[in-house]
Design goal:
The structure holds two protein chains of two kinds. By secondary structure, chain A is of the alpha+beta class. Chain A is about 25% helix and about 20% strand. Chain A is built from 14 helices and 20 strands. In chain A, strands 1, 2, 5, 6, 7, 8 and 20 form a seven-stranded mixed beta sheet that branches. In chain A, strands 4, 11, 12, 13, 14, 17 and 18 form a seven-stranded antiparallel beta sheet that branches. The longest helix of chain A has 19 residues. The mean pLDDT of chain A is about 95. Chain B contains six helices and no strands. Classes of the chains: A alpha+beta, B mainly alpha.
């Protein structure tokens, strides 16, 4: 089987759809290759009701809350991916079988779903600023117009508060989402003690979320039903499927699935790149030809394809991933208050910790409240008997917040990924070695302690600190970093992989390091920038 | 299977104070198999057998395993029943928070914590005996 188009995009995640959109709008023919797993079982079961009403009335709730195979009931030691509820389970489906990864130190999450990891992302949409991009061959100005275009496409809510200088300006910013009352209480306390909090490096405000606070482009405003981990009804949360549906309405676009891309080849014909893919269900193989290839298969997926295509087995590549910590917190002054029946499930407040010079690096934080992920998961963490633990959790729930903290990451000698042959018939697996240097870990903990001390002064007390280990942030980058000079296995400013004529990388692969802030919005903006460069070449 | 039904009934009474409906008990039996919670011969099986013969000991032994044997089959089965109860509409109010005011809530937290600690202390004395098995007791 052979197919032809101007550009092939591999992967339908946030970067993939934003690479395809400007090309298709300009009339360039684009084929998107994707495995494209979807949830066909649970989504129709989730009713359009507020969480509390649903819990009291819906007889089939056990199916989408726990799963038909009880896949939503974690019994092991894993504390990562609680938001991957049964309706989101397809996001990780088939990954161990089709894209094996071996590591004793790195907990990786990859996706072969329609929308990739974006099908379950937390929707935090924050720009990288000049400080974040320091040392990159790319400036804030190179991305500015693309950040704005992406923001208009996906719809971003937030406010111009104390976090503006960290989140960046956004001309099309929608009003912020309503925060849970307990978090509004925290923000009020912060406002009253702002000067002292800022002196310690602590800044709080509304989060920047790709979630609609009012209707936009056929999508509904947030319903505040607290079912965002289970359902995309109304599509207030932007997911790649939203833009993919727009693309699928265009004649120049073709969405081909289920195809697992194995490798590419650049034959003598200078106008062609050939992509070899396999149908994971039937094993059938196909060849796709195009003038340009854009790899947006996720940092780890793209690493496999590139290293396999270039025959670079046993060749370590750098990798970076944001260190990631959960901190359950309690606001004692909010104990005994009612839990809001109207709320959303995503980030309630944003947090930046920017300590004085010499006292640690910038920390990005999100404040969440707990409820729709069910109480039995909290009870499981307790060392008390279950009836007593359940009683205590119910009493404290209104005052409980879960803080998620992320730190920057730099490449280092002990952080690498390597493609190795793993069996007969050319099978291979990606091996990841990742060890955070002790000095970096201690420095990170010192910074976290200073942050939590500043938060304590606002009446928000940490109950513990859960370090979920390397890889658990699900932010990966740095495998083929952008470099100004002719560095082998790097990408140029257009994200073209050096050593190839027409292969472009537009997922996290190109970022030389990871700032503390989440990378997804930057990946989308950069994908659009790559597409605009491609337009000049292809048209 | 009827043993598992009885156990499910006992567990739901212990956890939420009321007996689970027949369909929840069916889910419990199915879940024990699905999640690999069948007890192999050894301390886990001995503990479950002890509980079957001495139902009064459940609060004490559960408190003990919560403190020192968190990955035990007993705790896995109780967590399964707790999750099934939480996703049953008739039992939703046992899981949804109820505002009581700060002082009342703090009082309840203290009382529940103290009760849990007392049960764990008693359970830790009983656990070695219960987990040893009838042949070795």
């Amino acid at each position: 089987v052979s197919h032809e188009s101007d550009v092939i995009v591999v992967g339908s995640g946030p970067a993939g759809v934003h690479a395809a959109l400007p090309l298709v709008e300009a009339g360039v023919s684009v084929t998107m290759l994707d495995v494209g797993n979807e949830d066909e079982r649970y989504a129709p079961l989730v009713p359009d009701l507020p969480f509390g009403d649903m819990r009291r009335s819906e007889r089939a709730q056990h199916r989408f809350l726990l799963g038909d195979e009880l896949e939503g009931l974690p019994l092991g030691s894993a504390r990562v991916g609680a938001q991957l509820t049964p309706p989101r389970g397809h996001v990780l489906r088939d990954v161990p079988r089709l894209t094996p990864l071996v590591s004793g130190t790195f907990r990786a999450s990859e996706s072969l779903a329609l929308g990739g990891l974006g099908a379950a992302w937390g929707a935090s949409a924050v720009r990288f600023d000049a400080g974040d991009l320091a040392g990159f061959p790319l400036s804030e100005g190179d991305l500015a117009v693309h950040y704005e275009a992406v923001a208009s496409e996906i719809g971003i809510s937030g406010s111009r508060d104390d976090l503006l200088r960290y989140y960046g300006e956004c001309a099309s910013l929608l009003p912020p989402l309503e925060a849970d009352p307990s978090v509004t209480h925290l923000l009020r306390r912060y406002a009253g003690r702002r000067t002292r909090a800022n002196r310690r490096g602590l800044y709080l405000g509304h989060p920047r979320l790709a979630v609609l606070s009012r209707a936009h482009a056929g999508r509904s405003a947030q319903s505040y039903h607290d079912l965002d981990f289970y359902s995309d009804r109304g599509r207030s949360v932007w997911r790649p499927a939203v833009t993919l549906d727009r693309l699928r309405g265009r004649a120049a676009f073709s969405y081909a699935r289920p195809w697992l891309v194995e490798r590419f080849d650049e034959p003598h014909d200078p106008a062609a790149v050939v992509v070899l893919a396999r149908d994971p269900k039937t094993g059938e193989r196909a060849e796709f030809r195009a003038r340009r290839l854009v790899l947006a298969a996720g940092t780890l997926g793209t690493a496999r394809i590139v290293l396999r295509s270039l025959g670079l087995y046993d060749t370590p590549r750098p990798i970076v991933s944001n260190p990631h910590v959960y901190v359950p917190c309690l606001q004692p002054s909010w104990i005994g208050r009612p839990v809001a029946s109207r709320r959303h499930s995503l980030t309630q407040a944003g947090l930046i910790f920017d300590p004085p010079a010499g006292e640690g690096g910038l920390v990005y934080g999100e404040v969440h409240v707990y409820g729709s992920l069910l109480l039995f998961k909290l009870v499981r963490e307790s060392s008390l008997p279950m009836p007593q633990a359940l009683g205590i959790v119910r009493e404290l729930l209104s005052a409980l917040a879960i803080l998620v903290l992320e730190h920057a990451d730099e490449p280092a000698a002990d952080k690498s990924c390597t493609l190795r042959r793993s069996g007969p018939a050319g099978a291979d697996a990606l091996h990841v070695d990742y060890r955070e240097p002790d000095a970096a870990r201690f420095a990170r903990r010192r910074t976290e302690s200073a942050l939590l001390a500043a938060l304590r002064r606002l009446g928000c007390h940490a109950l513990g600190r859960i370090d979920t280990g390397p890889g658990s942030s699900i932010h990966y980058a740095g495998t083929f970093p952008m470099a100004a000079g002719e560095v082998p296995l790097s990408v140029d400013r257009a994200c073209r992989l050096r050593g190839t004529r027409a292969v472009y990388l537009c997922d996290g692969s190109f970022l030389p390091r990871l700032p503390a802030k989440p990378l997804t919005l930057t990946l989308m903006a950069n994908a659009r920038r790559v597409a605009s460069e491609l337009l000049r070449e292809v048209l | 299977l009827s043993d598992l039904h009885d156990e499910g009934r006992r567990f739901s009474r212990y956890l939420v104070g009321s007996e689970a409906a027949p369909e929840v008990l069916e889910r419990y039996v199915d879940g024990v198999a699905r999640l690999g919670l069948a007890a192999r011969p050894g301390p886990d099986a001995a503990l479950l057998e002890f509980l079957r013969r001495h139902p009064w000991s459940l609060p004490l032994l559960e408190a003990a395993v919560a403190a020192v044997r968190r990955e035990s089959v007993l705790r896995g089965r109780l967590l399964l029943m707790l999750a099934l109860c939480e996703t049953t509409p008739e039992l939703a109010d046992a899981f949804l928070p109820r505002p009581r005011g700060r002082i009342t809530s703090l009082g309840r937290v203290a009382r529940l914590g103290a009760a849990g600690a007392c049960k764990a202390a008693c359970g830790l004395l009983l656990l070695p005996f219960a987990a040893r098995g009838p042949g070795r007791r």
